[in-house]
Amino acid sequence: RLGTVWLAANNGVLFIVDLSLDRVPSETLCDELLTEITNLARRQHVERISMGVYTCDRDSRAFVDGRGFEVASIQMLLEPLPARASESRVAVVPMTADRFASFAAESEASFARELAASGRFSEEDAAVESHRQMQVELPDGIDSEGQHLFTAEVEGAEVGVLWIGARTRGGRPHAFILDIEIAEEQRRKGYGRDVMHAAEREATRLGADSIGLHVFGFNTGAVHLYESLGYRRVEERFLLTV
Predict the structure, then answer these.
(1) How far apart are CA 58 and CA 215, in angstroms?
(2) Helix, strand or coil for residue 79?
C-alpha cells in the first residue's frame, strides 16, 4: 500500500479529489501514478485531468510539478488588510439599478468566456455554469443580501466596476471580490490598482480583516498585480490535457 487517491469524472474532466500518500513520493512513484490515472482517464474517454493543490500540500505539489499540468485557476488571500494611504484617483460608488441590468449580463458573459478559456468547461457548459453562479450569488438582483456592487469613477466618469461579496472565514467577517473589471479603453492607466485599494477600504468598512479572490491562471497580468499588492496563493487548480 502506497496511499489512496479519490477520483471523480464529470463533463469530460477527471478530478483528483484527494491524493494521500503514506510516504514522501519519489519522482518515479509520481510518474507511475500519473500514468495509471491517465490510462484510466483514456479508458473512460475523459479529455482532461484536474487537481486542486493547497500551498501547504507538498505531496500534491510534487505530483503536478514538471508533469505537464498547467495552472487553470488560483484562489488568493490578503490577510491582514494593510494600512495604505487613503488618497486615490478612483472613487467607488454604489451601482444604480439601471447600471446593474447591463452589468449583470456583461459579467455573466465574461465569466462564461473565462471558464471556457481556462479549459475547465466547454463553451456550452461554461455558459450554464456562469448563469448558475449568478443566480446563486444574486437571487434578488442588486438587492441580494450580502452583495455590494459599485461603479468605479474618475471625476464622475465610469472607468470600471467592483463586486464584493460578504463572507466569513474562521468565524470572522471576510470579503471576497467576485468581479473587478476596468473598461477596455481605460486600461493601462493604473486604475486596476486603485480599484483594488478601494476594495480593501470597502472590506474594512464591512468589518472584514481579510479579502480573497479567484483569478484564472491565463490572466498573468492580474496575478502579478495581486501578488504585488500582497495577496498570496492559497490554492491552485491544475489541468492536464490527456
Answers:
(1) 22
(2) coil
Using DSSP's 3-state secondary structure scheme, residue 3 falls into strand
Per residue of the chain (242 residues), what is the pLDDT tens digit?
889 999 999 888 999 999 998 888 899 999 999 999 999 999 999 989 999 999 999 889 999 999 999 999 999 999 999 988 777 889 999 999 999 999 999 999 999 999 999 888 889 999 999 999 999 999 999 999 999 999 999 999 999 999 999 999 999 999 999 999 999 999 999 999 999 999 999 999 999 999 999 999 999 999 999 999 999 999 999 999 99
Radius of gyration (C-alpha) of the chain in whole angstroms: 20
Cα(183)–Cα(102) distance, integer angstroms: 13
